[in-house]
Design a protein that fits this description.
Layout lengths: L1 H13 L22 E3 L30 E3 L8 H8 L20 H10 L33 H13 L3 H15 L3 H5 L3 H27 L3 H10 L1 H17 L1 E2 L10 E2 H4 L4 E4 L46 E5 L6 H13 L9 E4 L2 H9 L9 H8 L16 E5 L26 H10 L6 E6 L2 H4 L9 E7 L2 H11 L3 H11 L3 H6 L3 H17 L10 H18 L12 H19 L7 H6 L4 H7 L3 E3 L12 E3 L2 H19 L8 H6 L2 H4 L2 H13 L7 H11 L1 H4 L18 H15 L4 H15 L4
Parallel strand pairs: 6-9, 6-10, 7-8, 8-9
Antiparallel strand pairs: 1-2, 3-4, 5-10, 11-12
Helix pairs in contact: 4-7, 5-7, 7-8, 7-9, 9-11, 16-17, 21-24, 24-28, 27-28, 27-30, 28-31, 30-31
């Protein structure tokens, strides 16, 4: 035994370029007839888990093979990254076969089936703790296993078979192209056999791009037949690669607001995954600074309520089966579309859901465009629709195979403006049957078209509520950021740690802003406004108060409505009279709700103020349907995205009417008209006085935040700089009497001293809003 060990050591010293066995084959070539093989049957084969991070060894030593139990010497050729790491990721139980053995050419069909069972193709998920086996939220069958035609062994063997058929001259030209693309030396490009060539291609280009390079290289050396053959044999992998490239190109960069040159951000640099609850926990946040006990308290959360965005299709439905159709909803600005982008990017970059062969996005916005286009009268099949948006998938046959696991993502359900007839729409059970777009959508959600697909639907509450529950396996709702997530977002967004610290410190001065910032969109508004103040204007001494943020949220959501639902471009976002009137009517409704002491409204209330349900609850971006409250009469219940936003819209209505029409809505009572002159009622001083009286009179403080927002709107910084150009022109006369209005607040503070500490505190905050200063 000792003699054998010494002999083995001597052989290793003589051959310095020994190479570890590859999971693609025994690494044997036609010139390896004299290769010595040692097999120690007493030593078990030990496979290194895929999660263990190991660096590839350029010149492996004999000690590295002690635990393998199988040692194969290679010719003097350099090691490559793919050869080394492929051995590390070989799953337990995998058998090493010789992919270059001439004996494989003589295999019968039965022998090939046996070999299919021998070769194990596994692409495990990224490192991390596996889900708890006892947790029924997860599907334990999701091992991250790819289809055999998309996994690395198939790609490796197919490219290798093509390279083996090249003549010496063709192989030299092929290697010269490889050298040009990756800057290799001539020696590096020319040394080694066909197995080394494929290894080097995979090492330099990766699994996906290696196919594209090989096909183009074959075409360049006039081997179009071989290029077509490779394309056909690996078409499933090529389509997957093209979809990944599309998602990376489209979602790698996040476009926030108006994109400015040189200020693009990578999605991974700013993305913080929001909390996603299962089975509709949550809704409108109940936290309110001036109303500690709001009506209809909402259910709380538990630790097992939430699910990660990449784990949605590891959930189980109520019957314990795998989820086929998942519905994700949430209030406007909560991060639904960004979550879709992150899901697609993680899949494209092989960070999650590797077992999904294809991911295809068919947003309802695109489907509505298709329906509204000139070709809407022409009926299409679902396969033609997919081919229309994804030319690389045109005529794809794999989606109809039973072993094809793929996902269809249908985002922005609220963008599809046509009503869908869920009861009378004809049933289609064939993917090639042509039908109207409405019919196709209903049948996809039913599961009769693309029956093998997993379907992910996203949309706002009021829009998705029309989908019958029997077609949905699981309902999830994005709840937004926790307090820790908000801080994490600001920390990730700004590389300047001092700037991030200042922004976090200042936004936390305002409790209502903390509550509203659970929406990722509001966090972006906060970051943008504060960054502008600190960097561009150097306003670090007096950072903005509460009202400017609410104005920015309203303006951005209205502009977004014009872009998404009305189809206007970024340079054509002028507000017309109907846009302004819509917001004023919503503000008037909010003001009447404040007077009636209610937080919810119904469709009848919208009709009372000349509003349409879709305009308010779906398109506006500042209202939502409340799915948790059940009216005794069965009526649908709606709210503003936050309780404080209702008070802001009420204050905005009062301010715009005062600013544009010189009317004091608060002083329109008969007593005010009898005891005060008409001119005095229309003054800024009188407006603030009426608001203060309303604030101090009710015991529950229903008008506290209303007064604070009204005072903020009276600030020149808000009404002259932020609102000008939207609700009224820039040349409108300035508001006078602001000094007298401040004295009204100061006098009210002196009067309330010692009587109502909460009221005094709120009045002080109102004064700060009017001056936009902390002093």
């Amino acid at each position: 035994m000792e003699a054998e060990t010494v002999a083995g050591t001597q052989r290793n010293e003589e051959n310095k370029w020994e190479r570890p066995p590859s999971s693609y084959g025994s690494m044997k070539t036609d010139s390896d007839d004299d290769v010595d093989v040692e097999v120690d049957v007493e030593v078990d084969v030990e496979v290194i888990p895929a999660c263990v991070s190991l660096s590839p060894v350029a010149q492996p030593q004999a000690a590295a093979q002690e635990n393998a139990g199988l040692q194969i010497c290679r010719s003097d050729s350099p090691d490559t990254l793919y050869t080394t790491t492929s051995q590390q990721t070989k799953p337990p139980g995998a058998v090493l076969i010789d992919t270059r053995s001439p004996d494989l050419d003589d295999l019968s069909e039965n022998d090939e089936e046996i070999m299919q069972d021998v070769v194990v193709a596994s692409s495990p998920e990224p490192c991390g703790a596996p889900p708890d086996e006892t947790n029924q939220l997860y599907d334990n069958c999701h091992t991250g296993r790819l289809h055999a035609e998309q996994d690395l062994p198939h790609v490796f063997k197919t490219i290798q078979n093509i390279v083996d058929r090249l003549t010496i001259e063709e192989r030299c030209n092929f290697l010269l192209l490889l050298r040009q693309h990756k800057g290799l030396t001539l020696q590096q490009a020319m040394e080694g056999d066909s197995l080394d060539i494929v290894d080097r291609i995979l090492e330099n280009f990766g699994q996906d791009d290696s196919l594209v390079f090989t096909i183009r290289a074959l075409e360049n050396i006039k081997k179009k037949t071989e290029a077509t053959e490779l394309q056909n044999q690996c078409r499933r992998a090529l389509i997957r690669s093209q979809l990944k490239e599309y998602f990376i190109r489209k979602y790698k960069i996040i476009r926030e607001g108006v994109v400015q040159p040189g200020k693009l951000r990578r999605l991974d640099d700013v993305y913080v995954e929001p909390q996603i609850s299962v089975y509709d926990h949550g809704g409108v946040v109940a936290l309110h600074e001036r109303s500690p006990h709001p009506p209809s308290p909402l259910r709380g959360f538990s630790g097992d309520t939430f699910v990660g965005v990449n784990d949605l299709f590891r959930l189980r439905n109520s019957d314990g089966g795998l989820v086929r159709t998942a519905l994700t909803t949430g209030i406007p600005g909560i991060g639904k579309t960004v979550s879709v982008r992150k899901f697609c990017l993680d899949w494209a970059e092989k960070r999650s859901n590797k077992d999904l062969q294809f991911v295809i996005t068919l947003s309802f916005r695109d489907l509505w465009f298709l329906r509204s286009s000139g070709s809407a009268t022409q009926k299409m099949s679902i396969m033609e629709v997919i081919g229309f948006f994804y030319p690389e998938c045109k005529g794809i046959k794999y989606l109809e195979e039973e072993d094809c696991k793929f996902l269809i993502i249908m985002d922005s359900f609220d963008c599809y403006k046509a009503p869908l007839d869920w009861e009378n729409t004809p049933v289609i059970k064939d993917n090639h049957t042509r039908a109207h777009t409405d019919v196709l959508i209903v049948n996809v959600i039913r599961g009769t078209v693309l029956s093998g697909a997993r379907v992910w639907i996203l949309g706002r509450h009021a829009a998705v509520s029309q989908i019958p529950c029997q077609y949905i396996d699981v309902v999830t709702e994005i709840q937004g950021f926790s307090d820790e997530m908000k801080d994490d977002y600001f920390t990730k967004r700004f590389h300047d740690e001092e700037l991030a610290r200042k922004i976090v410190t200042h936004y936390k001065r305002l409790p209502m802003l903390i509550a509203l910032a659970r929406q990722p969109f509001v966090c972006w508004v906060v970051a943008t406004v504060f960054e502008r103040y600190y960097r561009c204007r150097s306003y670090g001494l007096h950072p903005p108060r509460l009202t400017p943020f609410y104005i920015n949220v309203l303006i951005y959501q209205t502009n977004r409505r014009l872009q998404i639902y009305d189809g206007k471009g970024a340079d054509d976002l002028k507000w017309f009279s109907e846009d302004k009137q819509l917001l004023l009517n919503m503000g008037k409704m909010a003001f009447k709700m404040l007077e009636r002491k209610t937080r919810v409204f119904y469709e009848a209330d919208m009709n009372e103020f000349g509003l349409k349900l879709t305009e308010v609850a779906v398109f506006s971006g500042i209202c939502t349907e409340e799915l948790l409250t059940a009216d005794t009469d069965g009526r649908r219940t709606f709210r503003f995205i936050h309780f404080s936003f209702q008070e802001f819209m009420a204050a905005l209505y009062v301010f715009i009417v005062f600013r544009c029409d010189s009317q004091n809505v608060l002083g329109s009572s008969m007593l005010a008209k009898l005891f005060k002159p008409k001119d005095q009622i229309k003054s800024t001083q009188s407006l603030v006085q009426c608001a203060v009286e309303r604030t101090l009179w009710p015991p529950l403080g229903h008008y506290d935040m209303f007064l604070r927002f009204l005072c903020g709107l009276l600030s020149p910084q808000c009404h002259n700089k932020l609102l000008c150009g939207f609700f009224y022109p820039h040349n409108i006369p300035k508001i006078s009497g602001l000094a007298e209005a401040q004295r009204v607040l100061e006098k009210a503070i002196e009067t309330a001293q010692g009587k109502n500490s909460d009221g005094v505190e709120n009045l002080v905050e109102c004064l700060r809003e009017m001056t936009q200063e902390d002093a």
